[in-house]
Amino acid sequence: MTLITSCLIRARVAAYRSFNRFYANSVTRTIDVHSVPQDLFESKAEQPFRTSTNDPLLHTEKDLGLFYTVNPEDLKRISPFGKSLPLQFREECEAFNETCVMIRQPSIDIIKLMKQIDWNLPPLKVVLFPSELGVGMSLSLFHVLHYGLRKKMLLVNTPTAAEVLKLALDATPSPNNELMWDTPTAASSWLKTFAINNEELLKETNFRTKFTYTWSARESTPAGTHLLDLIGYATERIKYASECVGAIVKEVKTQVKEKNIQTLVTFDTINSYYGPTWIVKPDKSTVKPNEVTMVKALQELLLPDWNNAFIVVTIGPKGVIIPKVREKRNWLVRHGHYRTEHRLPGVLMYDEAMTVKSLLRTEGIEALEPFVPIQVQKYTDDEFNNQYRYYIDRNWIQNHRGRDEEGRKEILFYTAKNPYEMAKFVGSR
Amino acid sequence: MSLTYLKLRLKLPSNNMLVFIRTYRQAQRSTGPKSQEGEFRTLQLTPAKNNRSGPMKKRPKPVYKEVLPPRYLRMSTDQDWTNVWPTATTFKQSVVPLPITQGYVASDKENKGLPIEKRANAELMKIPNFFHLTPNHIKKHCAAIKQYCTPWPEEFNSDEACEYYLPIQITTHDYLNSTPSIRDTRARVVKFNFKLTQLEFDEHARDKFVRLAGPRYNTDTDELTLVADKCPYRKQNYDYAQYLLTALYFESWKTETWEQERTKNDWQRYYWDESPSRDRLLDILKAHEKDPSSVNSKSLLDRNKKLVERYRKSISRVQDEGVENELKNLKDYKNDVLMLYNLKL
User: Fold this and answer.
1) Contact at 8 Å (CB) between A107 and A164?
2) What CA–CA distance (Å, rounded) separates A230 from A213?
3) Across the strands, what pairs with A267?
4) How many angstroms away from the CA of B179 is the closest CA of chain A?
5) Residues 6+ apart with CB under 8 A from B144
6) Using CA atoms, how far apart are residues B339 and B345, in angstroms rounded to an integer?
7) How many angstroms separate the CA atoms of B272 and B333, rounded?
8) A363/B24 Cα distance (integer angstroms)
9) Is B341 in contact with A121 (Cβ distance < 8 A)?
10) Could you give the percent of chain B with pLDDT greater than 70?
11) Which residues does chain A have within 8 Å of residue B340's beta carbon, measured at their own beta carbons?
12) Looking at the DSSP assignment, which residues form a beta bridge with residue A372?
């Protein structure tokens, strides 16, 4: 093959790819504009797409489908390391210079349940499950978390539960228990998140330990230490961070009742706790989730032996860990490619049904029982319109073709009201 | 002798003149002009045009026989098809008066993807056809058999009645051939077919019966199929199948000691009464009571019988059934849990 032909072929391949990527601007339009009633859309345009109240305590069902702006201070307190919101959404927020979350049915439902729950009963669990990939479970969970923060509840938040089991490169055998595995980095970041989430509340209520914790023959923490001090100690002596998670869980479970603090426990992608992990022992067998110290401690939060708590968890394809230790490299999405664009980076493909039984399996359901399953749906028509107008308001849709009615219909057609698909399409990623 | 035989076979002329067979390779003489001999000769791979050995012979034109048009073009439209196609045979394109096609052209050159018509289509001859089983055929068959039939029993007026009076279906086959022997080894096979609802079981016995039967049990239709073909005669096979059924049934009622070692992974379906789910529910019911220490689990279950039963059913359905009904099952389960916690959505 001559040089010229090879160049030509390359050029053709490149053209093909670019066509695939930016098909938004090159597709021929077949909608007859005159057949579409124009006044209908214009009358909707007069309605607001943002709520007047940015306080989640005041949100009601009237605000459904509307955006509220998250106070940047609150955002920093809820997700200090930016893990409570998905990466793609955070990128968008950075571009818009504000964090706006849509108020949607699942989060409103959960808040409604939280308002009428009897706190003396064992904690109720709410399981959010998706209808598709990228319908906004994490955002619904974030809304609930924001509500909890405003209501001065104790937040026990595990934003990306699957991460520990996937990316714990520093997993080591526990110094006190040979059978267990420590994940120091993940544990210390969990502790820091807990401390930052609840700093004010812990100081107000003077939350001190009830038990003495012995870390080793020389090191121990006496009863009566403030929780923040305990966390400070554990984040310095990172070797004991994983066991400190267990200590925090124990203290929270025992003291929440007598101190009369309402607790909000949240897990994102908890289905990873009932499957395999990517942590490998020296003899090349895999570690089970309940052999990881931190995970085992967190699983105890789900037991019905305490009260004054409300548990919200999500299950989803992000939490499914495919047990292919050797072939991991083949499945992992390194960089975006047009054939693997629909996969999330760092996530293995999961093609089965996204319902409770297939995501959690028998053991997972048993561990979470009794729970209230709530499905997160795609956008409704109103929600889609509001999202579209928000993008136009932020000047995110700059192409004039995308801004008129015809363009709106095209976006609707291509994304099928899926929020994540819409963000990808509009952002021309 | 052998030589004469060979001649006869090959229809050779009998004058014994063709014994000239070259058995070794001889150097060919050059066909070029004599002046080139002994010098550098030209290599001629193809014969030169002006230098042909003889004139082109004219080929005789092939003579074809005159062929009649296919039969289907000569048929009348109101003929009796049962006479045209009386029994099962392979497909004949000249007989079937239908524009049937099968397959498609795979060639890249032309007509790619077009369906292939019936003429010279061997694929149509490979598949079974049912031209011998048209309604008219069946009518004729029935009319012929009718003289041998007895009237249908009045009691068997519905499927349920048939099932009730004839709980088991025993199938054997007789084979008739026009051969010297009237025996056919296939006639020995006996098949027993019945529904499990015909037998009396408790939960353990049924579970064990299904396990012992293995692939012979069809979950969808709840049917068991036993096929006996080990013995040489039908009577022996029939007796063996009877024995097999009896042994299966009574063996399933026995409880061996090692059956106590059954774990959760051995469950064929979700046994809620033995599952941790039950303990969870009891915990919550206990928390509802005013003084939790005074009640035991049995009294709790009795008091909330209706709720427990509903909960048990809905969670078992979530655990057992597939994805198709799962959203509906989850909705039921959600309502039960909300009722348990006295909540409203």
Assistant:
1) no
2) 10
3) A158, A313
4) 58
5) none
6) 10
7) 14
8) 86
9) yes
10) 86
11) 370
12) A126
A292 plus A425 within the same structural domain: no
Q: What is the pLDDT of residue A7?
A: 41
Quick one: B190 and B145 in the same domain? no
Q: Backbone phi, then psi, for A2, in 5-degree steps?
A: -75, 165
Q: Which of chain B's residues have a Cβ under 8 Å away from the Cβ of A369?
A: 276-277, 280-281, 315
**Inside any domain, residue B290:** yes
Is A307's CB within 8 Å of B280's CB? no
Q: Evaluate the omega torsion of the peptide bond into residue A370 and state whether it is cis, within 30 degrees of 0.
A: yes
- Whether B50 has a pLDDT exceeding 80, the answer reads no
Does A357 sit within 8 Å of B318, measured CB to CB? yes
3-state secondary structure of B194: strand
Task: Give the domain range for residue B142.
Answer: 76-149
Mean of the pLDDT values across residues A285-305? 94
Q: Which two tokens stand for residue A428?
A: 């021309």
- The answer to whether the CB of B104 falls within 8 A of the CB of B116 is yes
Q: Do A317 and A178 reside in the same domain of the chain?
A: yes
Q: Which residue has the tokens 């108020």?
A: A103
pLDDT digits over B202-229, tens only? Answer: 989 999 999 999 999 998 899 999 999 9
- State how beta strands A371-376 and B190-195 pair: unpaired
Containing domain of residue A276, as a range?
104-377
Answer with the one of B261, B296, B311 that is the final residue of a domain.
Answer: B261
CB contact under 8 A, B319 and A357: yes
What pLDDT was estimated at residue B303? 85
Do A304 and A189 fall into the same domain? yes
Contacts for A320 with CB less than 8 Å, ≥ 6 apart: A271, A272, A275, A348, A350, A359
What pLDDT is stored for residue B39 in this prediction? 74
Residue B62 in domain: no
- Check whether residue B224 and residue B254 sit in a common domain: yes
Facing B343 at nearest CB: one of A113, A120, A366: A113
A128: enclosing H helix or E strand? strand A124-130
What are the backbone dihedrals phi and psi of residue A180, each rounded to the nearest 5 degrees, phi first? -100, 160
Res. B46 pLDDT band, cuts 50 70 90: confident
Q: How many CB atoms lie within 10 A of CB A336?
A: 12
Task: Tell me which of A362, A377, A392 is where a domain ends.
Answer: A377
Q: What is the mean pLDDT of residues A63-90?
A: 94
Which member of B311, B315, B327 has the closest CB to residue A355? B327
Dihedrals φ, ψ of B287, to 5°?
A: -65, -25
Residues B211, B167 share a domain: yes
Number of domains in chain A: 2
Round the average pLDDT of chain A to a whole number and report it.
86
Residue A292 has a pLDDT of 96
Confidence band of B12 (pLDDT split at 50, 70, 90): very low
Q: What tens digit of pLDDT does each residue of A300-346 get?
A: 999 999 999 999 999 998 888 876 545 555 555 566 556 555 555 55
Inter-chain contact B343–A305, Cβ cutoff 8 Å? no
Identify from B316, B327, B330, B336 which residue to disrupt to test chain A contact, counting A C-beta atoms within 10 A and taking the largest count: B330
